[in-house]
Amino acid sequence: LLRLDESHEPRAFRLLVSNPSDITVLERPPWFTTRRVFGLAAVLLIVVMASMAWIFALRARVARQTELIRQRLESEAAVEKRLALVWESSADGMRMTDAEGTVVQVNQAYCELIGKSRVELEGKPYLDAFLVENREGRLAGYRERFAKHEVIPRRELKSLLHSGRVVWLDITERFMDQTQGPPLLLSQLRDVTEAR
Fold this sequence. Notes:
It is a single chain. This protein has 196 residues and is α+β, with helices and mostly antiparallel strands. The protein is built from 4 helices and 7 strands. A 5-stranded antiparallel beta sheet has the order 4-3-7-6-5. A two-stranded antiparallel sheet has the order 1-2. Strand 5 and strand 6 form a beta hairpin. The radius of gyration is 42 Å and the shape is rod-shaped.
């Protein structure tokens, strides 16, 4: 039986058979039909568009993060520049020492107070600037206090410089914890000999 639509085009047919074995399938229809091809193309298009959207979003996020990092680095550089200016223009002698008592950094005022150049001071034990008895005992005491994070925040101390000159020093100390690297001890020294 043949079924036709309004324009008399065949739309369906029906076979009347007495037994299903009367029909033999000679060939299966192809899997890639027009409908399936369009379906696959639609899925691929959606995947490609989603991937492109994700890539654009990721690129925008990377650009924002890069800009934030650049701004932060510029800000940190500006702060470091200001701190370096304060460090060098300070009238007080300043030095930073590590856990072993080695001088890491000094400012110009410290060099003038002690009477030695940076090259003579940095990388050497802080006690090289002074004439002291029981040098090893003093260094051991410093290391022990450093390990415990103990300092006398402020004190006046009569000191004998390496040159033989006697000075009274007002000394302020504090620990400087660093984000990268071990902590350092910042010592600020002021000559108060004339005030005594």
